[in-house]
Sequence to fold (709 residues):
Amino acid sequence: MSSHAVVHAPVGGRIMTRPFMVLLAIAAVGAITAAYRFANGIGSLSNLSNGYPWGVWIAIDVVIGTAIGCGGYAVGLLAYVLNKGKYHPLVRPAVLTSLLGYGLAVIAVVIDLGRYWALWKVPLFVWRWSHSPQLEVALCVAAYTLVLLIELSPALFEKLRMGVRSRVKSFAEGALRILEKNFFWLLALGLLLPTMHQSSLGTMVLLPGPKVHPLWFTPWLPLLFLVNCIIMGFAVVTLEASFSAAVFRRPRETAMLSSLSLVAAWVALGWVVFRLAEVTLTGKLGYLGSGYGIAFLAELAVLVAGSAILLSGRRAQSVWQVRAAILLLLGTALHRINAYLVAFRPGSHFSYFPAVPELLITFGIFAAEIAIYVAVVKTFPILSGAMPSPAKT
Amino acid sequence: MTLDRRSLLKTLVAGGVASTAGALPAAAYVRKTAPPGAMGMLYDTTLCIGCKTCVVACKQANDREADPGPWREAKLYDAPVDLNEDTKNIIKLYREGDTTSYMKAQCMHCVDPACAAACMLHSLQKDTITGVVTYDPAYCVGCRYCQLSCPFNVAKFEFSKALPLIVKCELCRHRIKDAAVQGANGFTRYPKGQGPACCEVCPRDAVIYGRRDELLAEAKRRIAAAQGKYYQDRVYGERDGGGTQVLYLSHVPFDKLGLPELGDRPVPEVALSVQEGIYYKVPFVAPVALGVALAAVIYRNRRVEEVRSDEGEAKS
Fold:
C-alpha cells in the first residue's frame, strides 16, 4: 500500500506443516464449542452470570484482541504521520496482524452476543442510534475491519498481477492505481477509527462506574486506553517481526526494532507516570494496600520492567527486544483485564472464573489468528523481500 | 531519536486532549428530571411482613416460570433466591443480630437510567410520559451492557436459552388500559387490575403504586410523622444516582438492603459527558477534524518524500 521502495514478496513453502495442523486442530475445537453455544445458549457452557455478564470473550478476545490488532495503528502513526519512512517494511505485516485481530474480535462478539441475529440492525437503523459508547465502538470496529481489508488488498492485487491471464493482470493494475490515488484518506481513516474506538473502550468502563474499583475508575480512562493500545501495538509489531524472522528465516530487522522499542519504552513510561499521578492527585493511594492495589501495581511493575530493558543497552539484542515486548504486552493487557473484569465488583454474592469451554473458544480464536497469518504470509506478498536498510537514529 | 519522542509526544497530547476534552466539563452534562407523569412505587420496610404474595402475583401477571430454587428436582415450590430471568420482583430478608428487615427488589426505574444509556438502539428506553424503563426486544442484540451498567443489578438475561431475552420489571405497563382517575384524597387512583401486580396484592400496603411526586410527598409525610423512625429521615431514590421512580423508606441503613450509596450524581453522567463532549456537543466535528488533519499530514508527508526521491533520481 505504498509507493515507497519496499518490495514485498510471499514467503512460499508448504502451508500444511505440523505446527500449522496443530493450530488448525485448536481452532476446530473452538469452532465445535462455539457451535454448541449457538445450539444451547451462552449459559450452557460458560460461567457468565447475571452478575458477571461479560467474561473472557469480551475482556480478552475483544478488548485485548483489538488492542493486539493495533500494530497497524501504532506503526502507521510512526510511518505516515510522524513520517518515519524507515518503518515502512513493518507496515504491511502489521496491517495483516491488525486485520486478523479485528476480524476475529468480530467473530468473538458474535459468539458472545445473545441475540446476534439482530446485529445487522446496529449499523443500519441510524434513527435509533443512542449515545452509548458501545455503539461507537461497534460501528468503528466494523468500519475499521473493512478499512484494514482495503489497506491489505494491494497484497492480493500484486499477487494477481504476477498471474498469467492478461485480463486479470490489467484489472489488478487498475485496482492498484485506484488504491494508490486514494491512499492518503484511506490511511487517515485507518488511523482515525482506532483513535475513536480504542478510547471509547475506556469510556465504556465509565458507565458501570459505581461497580468499578476507584483505582481504575477515572474520567481519563479513554486516554489511558488509547495510549495503552499504542504500546501494545508496538509490542505486537516487535513480536510479529521477530517471529517472522525466526520462523521464515528472513533477515532480522533488529536495528529498526531497536529504535521502535525506544519509542515504545518512553510511551509506556509516560503511561505509568500518568497513571501514578492520577491515583495520587485524586487521593486514591489508600487503596494500594488492598488486593486491588496488587493488581494495580502489577500493571505498572510489568510495564516499568519492560521499559527498563528497552532503555538499557540490551534493546540492541533481539532476544531482549522480544522479552521486553512480551512484558509490555502483559502489562497493557493486564490493565484491560483489570478494568473489565478484576476491578468490576457486582457484589460479593457473584463470582466469575472462565469455564473450560469459554477458554477453548478463546484459544481457538487465537490459534486461528496465527494459522491464517502463516498461511497468508506464505501465499501473498506481505513481508518485505529486500534486506531492510539500516535504521538511522 | 529525540525528534521521534518529541513529535510522538505532541501527537499523543493532541489526541489525548481531543479524546478527553469532554471529560473535564462534566458540569456541562444536563441532568434529567423525572417526566411530569412519572409513575413509581413506594416501599416501606417497616410495613412489609415478608409474605411474598407480591412475588407470586408478579410471576402470574408477567407469565414467568416458577423457579424451584434448591428443589429443582421436585419442582414443588417457587423459591427464587434473587432476581433472575424468571423473577422480576423478589422479597429478601436482611438479618444482623436482632435487627431484621425485609427488602423488595425490582427495577428502580431510574430518572436517568444507566441501562438505557448503555443500550445501542434504545431497546431499553425511558417512556417519555410515565418514565417507565421499557424493553423492546426487536432492537436488542443481547450484548448485556445494560446488565453491566445497572448499579442495582436489575436487568437479567436468559443465559439458559438459545434465543434469549433481557428480563426486567416494566411496572406492569402491559396491564394498563384505561386512564387514571383523581381520587378524593388527592391520590391518583387506577382501575383494578391495571397497576403493578405487586402493589395490588400487598396485604399491608407496604408497597404502593402511584405518581412519583405524590409518593414522594407521602414518604415525607411518614418521615415527618415519626422523626427518627426511618434511616437518616431520608427517602432513598429522591436524589440517589440522579433519582429513581421507585422510592424506599427503611429502618435499617440502605446499603444493608442492597441499595448502594451512589450520591446525587446520575450514574451515566461521567461516561456520557465524555462521550457526548467528544462526539455530540458539536456533532461529529472533532472526529471529522482529526480525520481531515491526519489525511492532510499523510498527504503532505508523501509529497515531500516524492520530491525527495525525484531529486535523488536526478542526481544519480
Notes: Chain B has eight helices and eleven strands. Residues 2-28+272-315 of chain B form one domain.
